[in-house]
Amino acid sequence: MKLRFDDDVEAFRAELLAWLAINRPSAAEMAAEPSVSTGHAPAWARRWTRTMFDAGWLVPGWPPERGGRNAGPIESLVYIEELAKARVPRTTNVQGLGIVAPSIIDYGTDAQIRHYAMPILRGEATACLGMSEPNAGSDLAALTTRAVLEGDQWVINGQKVWTSGANYADFCFLFCRTDPHAPKHQGISIIIVPMDTPGVTVRPLPEIIHPDQPDLNEVFLTDVTVPAHHLVGELNNGWAMANGSLAHERAMVWVNAVMGLEESLATLLVEAPALLDRLTPIERTLAVDQIVQVAIDTQAARCLGYRGFAKFARGAGAPEQALMKLYASEARQRVALVAAEIQGADAVVAGGVANDGHHAVDEPQGTWLEQYFHSFANTISAGASEIQRNIIAERILGLPRK
Ligand SMILES: Cc1cc2nc3c(=O)[nH]c(=O)nc-3n(C[C@H](O)[C@H](O)[C@H](O)COP(=O)(O)OP(=O)(O)OC[C@H]3O[C@@H](n4cnc5c(N)ncnc54)[C@H](O)[C@@H]3O)c2cc1C
After folding, report:
1. Ligand 1 contact, 319 CB (< 6 A)
2. CATH code where residue 279 lies
3. Which of 99, 347, 348, 370 could form a disulfide with 340 if both were Cys (CB 3.0 to 4.6 A apart)?
4. Same domain, 224 and 251
5. Are 226 and 154 in contact (CB under 8 A)?
C-alpha cells in the first residue's frame, strides 16, 4: 500500500499553495461582507471566482478556457483539501458552480453555455437550482411545477422550496413537468428562468442560526413566460439530466463532508483541554471517551474516503459515496453534539469556536450549538441520511427494495 502522493501531485499542491498565499481573499475581506442578503453575491466572492477562473484554479479538472488546467481526479482532491485547510470558500454560489454551470456545459446549446454557464464561471452571474417542491424532495420525480409550450413561449406555474441563493440569483435552473401524462420519471424538463421575469416571487425562509442572512427560499411561479429556447437539453429528459447534474456534485459533497468533519475535530481538539478542565473527574472520563470516539470516527471517514476516491479516480463505480456522505455528515453532527454536551448549559451562551469566521466548505461556523444545528443541513441536503441508507441497503448490500 502506498501512503503518500506522487511527486507530481505534491508539485501541484506546492504550486496551488504558493498561488493561494498571494491571491486568496483575506479573512478581513470575507468577514466584512459575509452575507448574500444584499441581493447579490458578495463583491469579494465575485472577484475571487474571476481570479480563480483566470488562473485556471476554478475547476482544475476542466480545460483552461473553462477555468481549469486539465488536472486529474487526484489533483482535484488535493485542491479541495488545500482550499478547505486554508479556510477559503471556493464559491458562495455552491449550486451554480457545482451543478448548474457543469450541467449547462454538458447538455445546453452553445448560446446557453455562452449566456449562462460562462458568466457563472467568470463570477459575473449566479444561479439557483429549482428542484425541490413542497411535495417533492427525496421523491424528486413527484414534482408538479408545470411548463406548457404556447407558441414559442413556455408558460410556467408552480412552487419550489429550499432553493438556495434564489434571493440573489440571476437565473434559476428550473425542473418542470412538461408531460403530465407520462410516467412520473419521464415528462420532466429543465428550463432556464431569469429571476427578474414577471411572475417570479422569492420568499426567503428565516433560518434559526442566522435569521438575518437567509439563504434558503420559497420560489413561486405564476404565469411566468420565457422563450422556448430556454429549454436545456432534450424535452422530457430532465430526470436523466438530473442524475447527471447531481453526479457533478456527489464527489464534492463527500470530499467536503470529510474535510468539514476533520476541521470540526481539529477545533474540538484545540479547545478540549479548556473544556475538560471545567468538568468533575467522572464527567471528564466520560467526555474523553466521547472525544476519542469521534476522533476514531474521523480517522475511519478519512480512510474510507481515500479508498472510495482511489476507486473513483480509476474510473470504477464507487458505492462508497453513499457511505461516505452518510458517515461523514453524521460523524460531524456527533462532534458538534459531543462538544456542546461537554460545554453543558454554557453551550447556549458560549462564544464562537476558534475560526476566522469563514467555514472552509461554504458553511458558516459559530458556537458548537450553532454547528450542531447547522449539521442537519448536511444530513438532509444532497440526499437525506435515510435515503443514503436505502441506497446502501439496495445497491451495496443487495437487500430487497421494501
Ligand atoms: C441546506 C439545504 C440546501 C438545499 N438547497 C436546495 C436547492 O438549492 N435546490 C433544491 O431544489 N433543493 C434544495 N434543498 C432541498 C433538499 O434537496 C431536500 O430537503 C431533500 O431532498 C429532502 O427533501 P424534503 O426536505 O422534501 O424531505 P422529504 O423528502 O419530505 O423527507 C422527510 C423525511 O422523510 C425521509 N424519507 C423520505 N423518503 C424516504 C424513503 N423512501 N425512505 C426512508 N425515509 C424517507 C427523509 O429522509 C426525511 O427524513 C436543500 C436542502 C437543504 C437542507
Report:
1. no
2. 1.20.140.10
3. 347
4. no
5. yes
